[in-house]
Amino acid sequence: GESVGLHLPTLSVQEGDNSIINCAYSNSASDYFIWYKQESGKGPQFIIDIRSNMDKRQGQRVTVLLNKTVKHLSLQIAATQPGDSAVYFCAENMSNNDMRFGAGTRLTVKP
Amino acid sequence: GAGVSQSPRYKVAKRGQDVALRCDPISGHVSLFWYQQALGQGPEFLTYFQNEAQLDKSGLPSDRFFAERPEGSVSTLKIQRTQQEDSAVYLCASSFQGGTGELFFGEGSRLTVL
User: What value does the mean pLDDT take over residues A40-60?
Assistant: First the structure.
């Protein structure tokens, strides 16, 4: 399944399925993007990043895709596990070197 | 510890009180950020330091909010005359370099204003 990361929507997937979380960013000049995972009561945790000179970057079970034409990021999680349940935020590096976060998407993994 | 440390973890204040929130970044990290996170929302940028210099404070919602990092390490976020709308989790993050580096977050200070 997939979801747009605005107004904290919820994405619910079955354990073992792939998840796709989407994010629209605001600044065409942003040159660096990060996906963060936030579990309840904790601070955001880095998952994966990508620079604007790349379209795709892969990590362990995660892939980030960047489409600069439409200012869109996606996070793909392969073989989603219960431990992946959290809120996921995309963040963009603004031209003045601060990071700005989207509203997030809540991922729920059903066993 | 090796991570970003914030204190207090929880703070309850009566409306009109002043509060101070502390952040101990990872040793050697040049950049330090403060964010405000309301319930069910993403973190909202407040201010950014590079060493002791406050390079951006455009996110501070009013002049009741003040942040400092006098020696380029520990930072304090102060909120004067707290109001109910100030209730939120205040997150601190640090990075080795500027905004282009990975941010390491603390667990936040949850402020509740009654």
Answer: 94
